[in-house]
Amino acid sequence: MNIPLTSQLINMCAALLLLIAFAMLSQRRILSLINLFALQGLILAFSTALVAHTSNQHHLYYSAGLTLMLKVLVLPWVLHRLIRKLNIKWDVETMFNIPTIMLVGLALVIFAFNLAAPISQMAGTITKSTLGIAMASVLLSFLMMITRSKAVPQVVGFLAMENGLFFAATSATYGMPMVVELGIALDVLVGMFILGIFFFQIRVAFDSLDLHHMEKLKED
Amino acid sequence: MFDQFGMLPIDVVLGVVVFWLVLGMAGLALQNSRLIAQFIFPLSAIGSLVLAGAALAGLGEVSTAILPLGLPDLPFHLRLDALSAFFILLLGAASIGIALFSAGYFRRMVAAELSLLCLEYHIFLASMALVFLADDAYMFMVAWESMALSSYFLVTTDHNQPDVRRAGFLYLLIAHVGAIAILMSFGVMQSGHGDYTFSAMRHTHLSDFWASIAFLLALFGFGAKAGILPMHAWLPEAHPAAPSPVSAMMSGIMLKTAIYGILRVSLDLLDTQLWWWGAFALALGLITALFGVIFAAVQVDMKRLLAYSSIENIGIILVGIGLTLIFHAFHKEALAALALTATLYHALNHAFMKSLLFLGTGSILHATGERHLGKFGGLIHKMPKLAILMLVGILAMAGLPPLNGFVSEWLLLQAFLLSPGLPHPYLNMLVPVAAAALALAAALAGFVMVKFYGVIFLGQPRDTTLAHAHDAGLWERIGMICMVIGCIALGIFPAFVILHLDFVTEMLVHHSLGSSAAQTGWLLLTPIQAERASYGPLVLLLIIGGGSLITVLLVKKLYHGRLRRGPAWDCGFPAQTARMQDTAEGFGQPIRQIFEWFMDVVRQVPSPFDLHPHYHGETHDRLWNLFYVPIKRVNEIIGNQVGKLQHGRIHMYLLYSFLTLLALLAFIQ
Amino acid sequence: MSYSALFFQLVQNVLVLLAAPLLLGWINQCRAWLQNRSGAGMLQPYRNLIKLFHKDAVLAHNASPLFRATPYILFACMWLAAALVPVLATDLPLSPAVDVIALVGIFALARVFIALAAMDIGTAFGSLGARREMLVGFLAEPALLMVLFTASTISQSTSLITIVETLAHKQFVLYPSMTFAAVAFFMVLLAENARVPVDNPSTHLELTMIHEAMILEYSARHLALVEWASALKLLAYMTIGIALFAPWGIAEGGNWNALPFAVVLLILKLTIAGAGLAFVETMSAKMRIFRVPEFMGTAFLLAVLGLLTHFLLET
Amino acid sequence: MEIFWVLGIPLFGGLMMAVFGTRQHAPEFNSALSFCTFVASAVLTTRVITGGPFSIWGEQFFVDAFNVFLVALTAFVGFTTSLFSRPYMRIEQHHGKLSINMLRLYYSMYQLFSFTMLLALLTNNMGILWVAMEAATLTTVLLVSLYRTPASLEAAWKYFILCGVGLAQALFGTILLYFAAEKILGAGGTALLWTHLNEVKTQLEPTVLSLAFVFLLVGYGTKIGLAPLHNWLPDAHAEGPTPVSAVLSGLLLNVALYAVVRSKVLVDGALGTHLAGNLMMAFGLLSVVMAAFFLARQKDVKRMFAYSSIEHMGLMTFAFGMGGPVATFAGLLHMTVHSLTKSAIFFAVGHAAQKSGTQLMKDIRGLIKTSPTVGWGLALGTLAILGMPPFGVFTSEFMILTTAMHTYPWTMPFLLIALGVAFASIFGRMQLMVFGETTGHRLPHPPAMIPVFLHLALVLLLGLYIPPYLADWYRQATALIG
Fold first, then answer.
1. What DSSP element (H or E) covers A5?
2. Which of A105, B520, D248, D458 has the fewest CB atoms nearer than 10 Å to its CB?
3. Hey, where are the domains in chain B?
């Protein structure tokens, strides 16, 4: 089988993304988590650029640039600033059994591959197997959000999910129309902005970013 | 009757409906108690009179109309056929007296409340008329629920009392659940072609299974409104809570809308009738009737007593419907016509007699401020005019000849007696048992009515406040006299009435009693043949009345009329206080004893050494604990379980969404 | 409606009126004999009535018009009932107006009135009597109705005349249903006419009395009418029993020739029935009032069984 | 051009309010902006009704009967809500719950929120639709947390995270949609345009589309509040300011449902089966039933009506899931009447809660006594939302239930039980709040009851008489949805 180098590289990136998703799933420390997120963004930008190169879709270069800007530079920077301001640098997550989570994650990956298999068959793009990985990383991020008990890691999980989606958009479909991508980027930015405000408010109201304080609204 | 004015009866009926609505609005605008009472309500009675006239004229012909309201493809269809005309006649005739009574009853109410009540009252009337007129499912449901809603607001007129609110709640809840069931029944009957008109439903053929579903849903839905077991719980709560004219209207007229609905669905809209529907209705009706009358016998609140009595009568009417269905299913049309006639007759009778009694309780309530039977006694001396009117009411209610209650029971028993020969052995066995149960219920009704009348009007006053009681006012008496006239006329001239009922039986079961019912003249009622059964109420009345008069005259003539007044003898007991009479509880005691397994009795028996012993007994509906409480409990349990899902942890919420996603993905794969 | 029919009706009206106290006297006399007493003689009821009519009526202070009207209504009802039952001839012009159901209705009407009148004065005994009377009534009435229904279903009619004609005409068939019905009817008769074991017409014992408790406050002519009505009621019940269970020998239609025979036969039947009643009354003890519902329930059950048997075995 | 005004006015308004929101007459200005939006949308509506659907700006915006009806509804309810929020917010300010800066944020976000909803409705691009939905979430998050109380922050947080995650799924669905579409339509701008997708829907790859629909349904379904994805909804409704609850319930949920229905049209075309409909029915039914049992245990009045919204959104989803002319018509009608009624209820509830100083139902008593308008508004609104004729909610429930009874009879026991339980729960509590002895006190500003009765009058009208042009409009939309 003769797969062009770029394709191999993209597949490599996909594998790396998956690996990072697993790493994030098991990471306890917030700072490392953010760093992993930045790394994920970097790989994403790289793979987008690769796709742009192979498919000659020029707008994907903008996408790559946007990703680099937003997800590798701005967001991690904002997050770093936030945790410094809120003084939660040393927060350590208490999570339940990491091996179990990993096992569940593994099952999810298999499930996602399975799901994506028939679609990948018909994908005309060079990167047809990436859809499964994208879906897997979305699901893994989802799992991460479920298992995190602090606000910041949850948000990182949320952003990682966006990354997964973005990867799906670029690698599987050569990117969405530019308008849409700009819109999505704007939303992410505004969302982060709002979240930033939010963190401060929550911090003021609850004295902590621990989500266990936010279980008051319920059926009793 | 209205032809010379170029109007169809249905136009007149619609005119009256509009007139009522205008009156209601006028009442809301007037905000003046005296004006509303003495002006609006008598006008409303005139409307009722016109309505009754139009309905009488409309019995013989079918007229339709379409109002440009409603759904886009489904304007409001109206139809005045014999069945609706009969029930509109019932509505009009019975509401005359109620409106006149209201003119007197409400005159002292606060203006703001009265104007609101006036609006609700007239919407209630108008929506009932529209229920009878409706010829498509949508219009029917709109009118039906408007009726429920307006009557709910009428029931909660006195909403400061928690009991009243509770009653209103229970009422509307059960009514609404019933309405959903009715709606579903229509859903079955429209059978997917999206045409909700009744005429389309008439032409739809349903399989036996679906027809049965439709029938059962309708029976459940309408039964909830009628107070058929086990959906009766609202009735004894709501009727006492409402102002008396409203109770009269609800009991006398509104319950009949449910009867109308059952008849409409089972005999008109569904094209097949299965015999077991009839057997089921029959059994249900009997249980309801017996249940109602037994509980009526042990009540201590006069309006609750009447409410339970209404349950009984609805049961009897349902028995009639059941019989009709059985006969109709076996193509015994003559018998079906007889049973149906009895059913309709009883519905009409009940409208008059129960309204009369409820109106009477209104006068008593106004005169004494009491509802508890234990506080009454000897009112015949304080309210003699009312006592006479009420005597007619209880005699009719007890099903005694020559009044109207007897006629319908007589017809129904005739239908039972003629039923042998059904091609189904079990039914043949069921029928005599049913007849026996019916006879038992009828006899118990006598017990109940003696208790009702005796405890309120006879004996010595049990409470000192009764000394200030005054007789019913003029308007109130006029209203009740209308009812009394109805009771007597229906009792004395059955052959004449049946001639008019024939239009309905002809329409529903394609047979009528007309040819035979009056074959020996209007004097005698002979439903099938003179040799088989006949009844001449006028003769009876004349003989009993005449016999009494002759006896009086003879005794006066032959002996002497000397009379002395003295203290009561009472076997020589010296102390004669009011407390020595039977209380309402006491009077019901034998029934309570016999049927104790049937009810939930809470007793407080005084100790033998108590110097001021007070016996206290309360009877509760066992079905409440057997049926309603479990439903409530299950509801709470499910609610608690469901509530646990929403426990405030965002992780779990995410997990739900995650699992949902995975499940769906797995599903489509 | 022929003149002969009118004549029959008139004769029967007068006859029952006059004969009713006699029947009561006969039963009382039989009871006396059976109890080894000499008795007051068969005409004692007449003497009682005359005595009562001559007395001054005493009314309680708070008696209402209802109280005063009741004896007359009661009397008229019972008179009508007794006059309706075809005993001598089956051609009675009043009969079409009142069939068996209406007959039961008339009894019920009378019962309701007397019960109301009993409650009117507001004495302890009055309301007690009324309550017990209604208790007995609500079970007796359907039982009676069921008995009559059994006969009606056999004859396919609720008209008394048709029933009697059918039953008298038919070949003698032993109807098992009618046997049940007869027993039930007899029990109802005992209860409805305030006889032992349900009630005792000759005591004023507070624990037991039903009928007497209700009429305690009546005196003089009112009491006379009430008593007379009771006698009429007993006669009516007796004749209904005869009409249903032993109708043979009645003068069908307006058959003049059969009439003398019918009269003799009727007297014979009534004599036997009266003696039988007295015998049963003497042999049984008054039961506790709480037992009465059971007793009546049995009667009701028997009557229903009778009707069921008819459907099971005879159709 | 109308589209420009419809979108431009609120966008411009949002910016203006951000600047001038602290002025004394900001509330009136806010209402005026909403009114202008409403007028513009009315003009747009007449144009669509008379001239038929059209699209502009490189087909990026598209108007047909389906969305223009929602545009008109959104603009109308947006306008009446702004009328309501005028006295309401002043009273809140008077009670010291809000500062002037918060009010500025409120007015600004209110206009932007209107903009995002209208954008979501008017855009032809499924991607932009997603963007607008996300933006709507973001603006409302700020509105929900307006009071800055711990509870409101918690509610807003949950709202943000749950809806954010949900919408991420929707984005994935959109990507999959694009993935399928680009095969047919080619990469680039047109592949996400709904009109184009609609034309080629039968050629779209079924497996991809079914997968896409699952993601879209879960995504937008979170926003609709379908059980079990609904958990954010009661919190957000209960803790946000009442006008926000009104527009959330009345409008935003509708817009999310709109997105699902648009997707369903495509998926149905591609699959040729009833899969999408069945999924929607299942979700709808589950929502109705679960919401009913949640209703039975509520103590907070706004929370209760939030659950009622879940119930009704479930019913609409169920109706659209059933499909067919009658059920779809009913679904559209239900959207309309539910918006009107539920927002009216929230208006009344808002004032009732202000009067009693609490949202706990046990402390709200005897409204009819102290302020008959609030009391009657709440009573009639509640009865209307419970499906009591002659109000319009009944009309649509009538059609939904009768159709369901025939087509899917097995759903009937569930619906019967759910509607019964819901009725008992809401009605019993409403009765206690409205009737009886009162606990309320006077408000510093007269309550805004005109919107309430205006809405209820419209709902009543729809119950008794649906004007022919409105019916045509619904029918056109029904034909579009199929």
1. helix A5-26
2. B520
3. 627-668
